[in-house]
Specification:
One of its GO terms (molecular function) is inositol monophosphate 1-phosphatase activity. This protein is an alpha+beta fold. The protein folds into 2 domains: 3-141, Fructose-1,6-Bisphosphatase, Chain A, domain 1 (2-Layer Sandwich); 150-258, D-Maltodextrin-Binding Protein, domain 2. The chain has helices at residues 3-23, 43-59, 91-96, 170-179, 189-197, 211-223, 249-258; strands at residues 31-33, 40-42, 64-67, 81-89, 102-109, 112-120, 125-130, 135-137, 140-141, 154-157, 182-184, 203-209, 227-229, 242-247. Bound molecules: D-MYO-inositol-1-phosphate (IPD) and calcium ion (3 copies). The site of one calcium ion has 6 residues, from strand 4 and helix 6.
């Protein structure tokens, strides 16, 4: 398989799908809930995933797809080519804010990240990488991430993790928030990874993300030397949900060692 051919194909699918998503703003959205009242999905999330799957299966019938909305394959291992897709990451933003949502896609071969993409649909910003070839923001090569310490960093996380929760001792997170220069929260894990990779943020933390939220961003993060692990400082398992941190290297060590106390 020619990786550049695959890259070109994936990019064209992303751009075409994004055009359809933008066009959907003129039609009425059908909004449903999934696991709970704030877990939203729309007809556009579903149609976008179906569009990818149909195109991938037509061109690469032997490739398998793990997609959030469940139209892909039942993936129990990462053997062969596996596309891990979030058709819209940040559905709540898509519905309420009409910005800050992304298409997130990672293409893996036997568990190794070959290609990774995060496309910020409304900003028209594409983050991309091919394994071993560095990362790009649109057509510009992204330099390797620099170091940062806690005091000079901007960290992004959901406010849910600084109130009592079942995953982490929230006092540690409050201490972290007191030390950092600033905090942000954008409502799309993929976009928050994009921001760490491009230097707009120094780290992004979450207690629970699914493979499709992070697969695309992980491939790109690796190319610029950003560290991606669980909050227990273990490798991410792309077959399950994980706690998650993507960060500049020194900061990663500091946060995981001094502030994270998992329950
Ligand atoms: C969600 C977003 C959000 C994160 C949630 C994800 P979705 O993805 O990435 O930022 O906090 O955990 O589920 O459902 O909008 O694709
Ligand atoms: Ca969702
Ligand atoms: Ca998501
Ligand atoms: Ca989604």
């Amino acid at each position: 398989m020619n990786i550049h051919k695959l890259d070109k194909f994936a990019k064209s699918l992303i751009k075409e799908a994004a055009g359809k998503i933008r066009a959907s703003f003129t039609t009425e959205l059908i909004i449903e809930t999934k696991s709970e009242a704030n877990d939203l999905v729309t007809n556009i999330d579903k149609e976008t995933e179906q569009f990818f799957i149909q195109q991938i299966k037509q061109n690469f019938p032997e490739h398998r797809i793990l997609g959030e909305e469940g139209f892909g394959d039942d993936i129990e291992d990462l053997s062969g080519y596996v596309w891990i897709l979030d058709p819209i990451d940040g559905t709540m933003n898509f519905i309420h804010q009409k910005k800050n949502f992304a298409i997130s896609l990672g293409i893996f071969k036997d568990g190794e990240g070959l290609l990774g993409y995060v496309y910020d649909v409304m900003a028209d910003d594409l983050l991309s990488a091919a394994q071993g070839e560095g990362a790009f923001f649109n057509d510009q090569r992204i330099p390797r991430v620099e170091q940062a310490n806690v005091e000079q960093s901007i960290i992004s996380m959901n406010a849910s993790w600084v109130v009592p929760n079942k995953y982490i001792e929230h006092e540690g997170m409050i201490e972290l928030l007191r030390k950092v220069r600033g905090t942000r929260s954008y409502g799309s894990a993929a976009i928050e990874i994009l921001y760490v990779v491009t230097g707009r943020l120094d780290a992004y933390i979450s207690m629970r993300l699914s493979p499709w939220d992070i697969a695309g961003g992980m491939v790109v993060a690796k190319e610029v030397g950003a560290i991606v692990t669980t909050l227990a400082n273990e490798p991410i398992n792309l077959l399950t949900q994980n706690t998650f941190i993507v960060s500049k290297p020194d900061l990663h060590h500091e946060v995981v060692t001094n502030y994270v106390k998992l329950k």
